[in-house]
Automatic annotation (TrEMBL), chain A:
<dbReference type="Pfam" id="PF17781">
    <property type="entry name" value="RPN1_RPN2_N"/>
</dbReference>
<keyword id="KW-0677">Repeat</keyword>
<dbReference type="GO" id="GO:0043161">
    <property type="term" value="P:proteasome-mediated ubiquitin-dependent protein catabolic process"/>
</dbReference>
<feature type="domain" description="RPN1 N-terminal">
    <location>
        <begin position="55"/>
        <end position="357"/>
    </location>
</feature>
<dbReference type="GO" id="GO:0008540">
    <property type="term" value="C:proteasome regulatory particle, base subcomplex"/>
</dbReference>
<dbReference type="InterPro" id="IPR040892">
    <property type="entry name" value="RPN1_N"/>
</dbReference>
<dbReference type="GO" id="GO:0034515">
    <property type="term" value="C:proteasome storage granule"/>
</dbReference>
<dbReference type="GO" id="GO:0005634">
    <property type="term" value="C:nucleus"/>
</dbReference>
<feature type="region of interest" description="Disordered">
    <location>
        <begin position="1"/>
        <end position="49"/>
    </location>
</feature>
From TrEMBL, chain B:
<feature type="region of interest" description="Disordered">
    <location>
        <begin position="1"/>
        <end position="35"/>
    </location>
</feature>
<dbReference type="Pfam" id="PF17781">
    <property type="entry name" value="RPN1_RPN2_N"/>
</dbReference>
<dbReference type="InterPro" id="IPR041433">
    <property type="entry name" value="RPN1_C"/>
</dbReference>
<dbReference type="GO" id="GO:0043161">
    <property type="term" value="P:proteasome-mediated ubiquitin-dependent protein catabolic process"/>
</dbReference>
<dbReference type="Pfam" id="PF01851">
    <property type="entry name" value="PC_rep"/>
</dbReference>
<dbReference type="InterPro" id="IPR002015">
    <property type="entry name" value="Proteasome/cyclosome_rpt"/>
</dbReference>
<keyword id="KW-0677">Repeat</keyword>
<dbReference type="GO" id="GO:0034515">
    <property type="term" value="C:proteasome storage granule"/>
</dbReference>
<dbReference type="GO" id="GO:0008540">
    <property type="term" value="C:proteasome regulatory particle, base subcomplex"/>
</dbReference>
Length: 362, 721
């Protein structure tokens, strides 16, 4: 494909800038767009030309008075868009060829009576808005909300990402106007989160939920395969979040770890939370495995947390004593000396040995 | 000497006179050269014969003449290094114009004189001096004269050898410089300040043998009744003895049974410093190790009300270290009472506040905060000017360590303080409250403070610089950016900022000797400003703490000879050497653990307190509060992975240890370490390293392989055979 076309296509989303004469405002799409298309026709391969004509036909038919014809046209259009698998770097061809008709379809959509067909049309407009919508207009989201609410993933990854971005913007606007988020929007968020979580895109799910300040929803979407990555992202990003959000992210990670029984990891986070003793105890009581509790005690001891092993943690007096000893670091010296003997550095060193040392060990 | 000869042009007659090389390369000589050669050979015939005939030559003039020639020839002859024949014959020769033999001859002679001089030691100095004077090289003669025993006589001789006043002035400069040097050397060897050197050795010994339970100074088995421990103790003076006694606690670190038993005997000493040190030592031994019987509290608490300040300090600081982070109620009651007593000496007061801060780290305890604030408001202006007063805001800040906005109420009150301490307190409180949070806004604010131009000797920019490090150390990216910002401050900042920068760098890379920071500190360790260079030296120790890093060890060794006559610097170098070999390389000072995720507040508190003390190195660390260095014990931890079995007995298994890889946001199961090596546990882990089991036979109970990790048999594993 010639690079000229490529840039034209990719730049489409932001083509509203006045300095650029080429992309016409939606209303005039027909006249100007055609002129341009003609110029381009020569560059298109036969295959592309056929696709282009086919799509143009669908656009005309979609505005047909016969609902049957309309439906067929829309379905075909939808089919074309969905099957277009394209690389990440260029706009899929059906989308590109449909771009000049976005305005036409949009204005026709306004005249349509409420019906399944209208929803169908909204779906397609929502996808087209991916490349056409003017920055900040959030048209993709707008049409999505009017659409049939079908499987979001069927339109591809990029569509979902774009939608997520628009949701974040919308949420910001709602916040500024002090309007609560409505239920349908929340459902859409859920849909997107679940899509991302199923497709190895945990960070994007987490990001979206953080944007809409509803991180708790995450817990129900994680599963055994992705909870580790999700928590890793949560804990790592917590370092970069401002004050209350960082603790929230950690708390969610803590809950997820607890949910999947990764108690040692949960403990690690508990030690970072405010009110840590309460959370640490919760981790202890989540298991009956004494050995695991011993491991917890080693971690608590390393952190230097002063904690009394009480009846809640274990009722057995002997066990209590063993755990308390570990928390008290009673065996730290022994372990350290084990290491020293293993590395063979028990021999005492005098200050002179250090002053003169060239390479003391290893 | 050889190099000088190489400079001789190949065309000089002397070089042609070589007996051996000439026939070896006949083709190379031009005809002219050949002729010259033959002529000379005729003159000389057999040089050996000439030489042996010499004694028989009757006339003295002839003899001298011959000696001159021999002297000239021997310049070039294949000669045994160190024979100094040229000089020998010159001395026997006619003593004529030395220059007539050419430049190279004189140089050679001078070289031989130098050799001769070394040999002569002190018996033939007149000749050497005479010779140089003969050359008219009076300045060199003076130099040699200055080295001689009755130098005054020879120096005078040099002076009288010329009438040139200008030259005499130059001589006077040389003499003046030399006298200075002599004094300098003399000062070190006598004031060698053996007390300070021993004090340094005490710390080095304590740091290096920390936790091993044995050393060569304090615990070495006693051959006689006295025991060497007692001996070493009394090689220290006054408060030095306190640090020496306390060092026993460091050597026996974490082994409270044996430690308390060994320290107990010093409690009965008549020497208040020894008792104080023993009390501190008890605290150090018990650091991080607790016991239901609370032996440390039982042993120490009766001493906090004693009359002698030093004993009180030892007891109070000991309690602070032993019970750091414990929030022990009894301590609040007892220590707050000391704070409230207006009769309490200032230094006791400061250490009481520090201990309260340590015991109640991050507790946001209002009552304690109030009592420290009261001290800061109540004490006179003169007292507020004392150097250690800077530790009071630190104590206050420790109560809010990492607690972010909880500090605000207290910070508001601090705005009403005397202006001497107000800003210092404000900045310190903020930097401690946000320590380890990575809060960029606060870092920006602190950077803003550092860009101010101070008018009247305010000191709050030091803690601001430290604050940048404390806050941004939270994650790698921020830490790297902070390092860069600090480099800027070094270039543009004022002196009080530059003094804190090395310490801030030390904090950012603690026990993590990054090469770029190492280089910066190495450069600063030679800075003209003593406080800057001392801080840089200490920081070299901090970044290399417990790593045995060979490069840092080399730098410190060089610094020890560079600063051999600067007692203060040398002390810092020694401390840094001790730190670099902390626990013989088995310990770390890093407050971060568990894959650099968790920040131990106790460790951080220890580091912060010591760093603030280092902001005024001269008055605190080099003064009588050197034992504050022991507060570092709060951050000391073995940098190990020790795997244990279900009975908590050590279990050796193969593990892969490699550089940690950041896998955040990566799909699938990416490798978490790179460039790994396989070892058997127990194994040391360096900064930025991660370990993973290299066997399927066991399952670790903690996903993060650090410190003590319990292994369970893998039920799904079946031995191959």
């Amino acid at each position: 494909m010639p690079p000229r076309e490529d840039t034209n296509g990719a730049g489409g989303a932001s083509s509203a800038s006045p300095s650029e004469p080429a992309p016409p405002p939606p209303q005039q799409v027909k006249g100007k767009g055609k002129k341009k298309d003609e110029k381009k026709d020569d560059d298109l391969s036969e295959e592309d030309q056929a696709l282009k004509e086919k799509l143009e036909l669908y656009v005309v038919r979609a505005q047909d008075s016969d609902p049957g014809v309309q439906k067929l046209a829309l379905e075909s259009m939808r089919q074309e868009i969905r099957t277009a698998t394209s690389s990440m770097t260029s706009v899929p061809k059906p989308l590109k060829f449909l771009r000049p008709h976005y305005g036409t379809l949009k204005s026709y959509f306004e005249t349509m009576p409420d019906s399944d067909l209208k929803k169908y049309m909204a779906d397609i407009l929502s996808v087209l808005a991916l490349t056409m919508s003017v920055e900040g207009e959030r048209e993709s989201l707008k049409y999505r909300m009017m659409g049939s609410e079908g499987d979001i993933g069927s339109w591809g990854h990029e569509y979902v990402r774009n939608l997520a971005g628009e949701i974040a913007q919308e949420f910001q606007r709602l916040q500024d106007d002090d309007v609560p988020m409505d239920k349908s929007l929340m459902e859409l968020v859920q849909q997107i989160v679940s899509f991302h979580m199923k497709h190895n895109a945990e960070p994007e799910a987490v990001d979206l939920l953080m944007e809409v300040e509803n991180l708790d929803l995450l817990v129900e979407h994680v599963d055994a395969t992705n909870y580790k990555r999700t928590c890793l992202y949560l804990t790592s990003s917590s370092k970069y979040l401002p004050a209350p959000d960082d603790m929230l992210a950690l708390k969610i990670a803590y809950e997820i770890y607890l949910k999947f029984g990764d108690l040692a990891s949960a403990l690690r986070i508990a030690l970072l939370l405010d009110n840590k003793l309460q959370y640490v105890k919760q981790v202890y009581t989540a298991t009956d495995d004494l050995l695991l509790k011993k491991q917890f005690s080693y971690i608590v001891a390393r952190h230097g947390l002063s904690m009394d092993i009480d009846d809640e943690i274990t009722a057995d007096e002997n066990d209590k004593e063993v755990l308390q000893e570990i928390v008290y670091n009673t065996k730290l010296s022994e372990g350290y000396l084990t290491l020293a003997r293993d590395i063979e550095v028990m021999e005492p060193k005098s200050p002179e040995d250090i002053y003169k040392v060239t390479c003391l060990f290893f | 000497m050889q190099r000088r000869l190489a400079m001789v042009s190949g065309r000089s007659p002397l070089s042609r006179n070589k007996c051996r090389p000439a026939p070896a390369q006949p083709g190379r000589s031009s005809e002219e050269d050949q002729a010259l050669k033959e002529k000379l050979e005729l003159y000389v015939c057999a040089r050996a014969g000439l030489r042996s005939r010499r004694p028989e030559v009757g006339a003295r003039e002839h003899e001298k003449y011959m000696a001159d020639i021999l002297s000239g020839i021997s310049l070039n002859n294949v000669r045994v290094e160190g024979e100094r024949e040229s000089l020998k014959y010159r001395m026997m020769g006619s003593e004529g114009d030395i220059g007539s033999w050419g430049h190279e001859y004189v140089r050679n002679l001078a070289g031989e004189i130098a050799q001769e001089f070394q040999r002569l030691q002190h018996n033939a100095e007149p000749e050497a001096v005479d010779l140089l004077m003969e050359f008219g090289d009076l300045a060199s003669a003076l130099r040699i004269a200055l080295l001689l025993d009755n130098k005054l006589q020879y120096v005078k001789q040099v002076y009288t050898a010329t009438d040139d006043l200008l030259l005499k002035k130059q001589f006077s400069y040389i003499v003046a410089r030399h006298v200075h040097l002599i004094d300098g050397r003399g000062a070190t060897s006598s004031s060698l300040d053996s007390a300070r050197q021993n004090l340094a050795a005490t710390f080095v010994n304590a740091f290096v043998n920390a936790g091993f339970g044995q050393d060569k100074l304090m615990t070495a088995p006693s051959d006689s009744s006295g025991g060497s421990s007692g001996n070493w103790l009394f090689k220290n003076k006054e408060h030095g003895k306190a640090s020496a006694a306390a060092s026993l606690g460091m050597i026996l670190l974490w082994d409270s049974d044996s430690g308390l038993a060994q320290l107990d005997k010093y409690l009965h000493s008549n020497d208040t410093h020894v008792v104080a040190g023993a009390l501190l030592g008890i605290g150090i031994v018990s650091c991080g190790v607790k016991n239901d019987c609370d032996p440390a509290f039982a042993l120490i608490s009766e001493y906090i009300g004693r009359d002698e300040s030093i004993i009180r300090i030892g007891a109070i600081l000991g309690l602070g270290i032993a019970y750091a982070g414990s929030q022990k109620d009894e301590l609040q009651a007892q220590l707050s009472a000391i704070l409230a007593d207006s009769q309490t000496p200032l230094e006791v007061l400061v250490f009481t506040a520090i201990s309260l801060g340590l015991v109640f780290i991050g507790s946001c305890n209002e009552e304690i905060a109030q009592s420290i604030i009261f001290v800061l408001m109540d004490r006179s202006e003169a007292e507020l000017a004392e150097p250690i007063i800077r530790l009071l805001p630190v104590a206050l800040g420790l109560l809010y360590l990492g607690k972010q906005e909880s500090v605000e109420a207290t910070a508001e009150v601090s705005k009403t303080f005397d202006e001497k301490i107000r800003k210092y307190c404000d900045v310190t409180l903020m930097s401690l409250a946000y320590a380890g949070t990575g809060n960029v806004l606060k870092v920006q604010k602190l950077l803003g403070i550092c860009s101010e131009h101070l008018e009247k000797g305010e000191t709050h920019q030091g803690p601001a610089v430290l604050g940048i490090a404390l806050i941004s150390m939270a994650e790698e990216l921020g830490a790297d950016m902070a390092v860069r910002s600090l480099e800027r401050l070094l270039q543009y900042g004022e002196q009080n900022i530059r003094r804190a920068v090395p310490l801030a760098l030390g904090m950012l890379c603690i026990s993590n000797p990054k090469v770029n920071v190492m280089d910066t500190l190495s450069r600063l360790s030679h800075d003209a400003d003593a406080e800057v260079s001392m801080a840089a030296i200490i920081s070299l120790g901090l970044i290399g703490a417990g790593t045995n890093n060979a490069r840092i060890a080399g730098m410190l060794r060089n610094l020890s000879s560079y600063y051999y006559k600067e007692a203060g610097h040398l002390f810092c170098v020694r401390i840094a050497q001790g730190l670099a070999h902390l626990g013989k390389g088995l310990l770390t000072l890093s407050p971060y653990h568990s894959d650099r995720f968790l920040l131990s507040p106790i460790a951080l508190a220890g580091l912060v307190t010591v760093l603030h003390a280092c902001l005024d190195m001269k008055s605190i660390i080099l003064g009588k509060y050197h034992y504050m260095l022991y507060i570092l014990v709060l951050a000391m931890q073995p940098r190990m992975l020790l795997t244990v079995d279900q009975d908590l007995k050590p279990l050796s298994v193969p593990v892969r240890v490699g550089q940690a890889v950041d896998v955040v946001g990566q799909a699938g199961k990416p490798k978490t370490i790179t460039g790994f090596q396989t070892h058997s546990t127990p194994v040391l882990l360096a900064a930025g390293e991660r370990a993973e089991l290299a066997t399927e036979k066991y399952v670790p109970l903690s996903p993060f392989l650090e410190g003590f990790v319990i292994l369970k048999k893998n039920p799904e594993y079946h031995d191959e055979d």
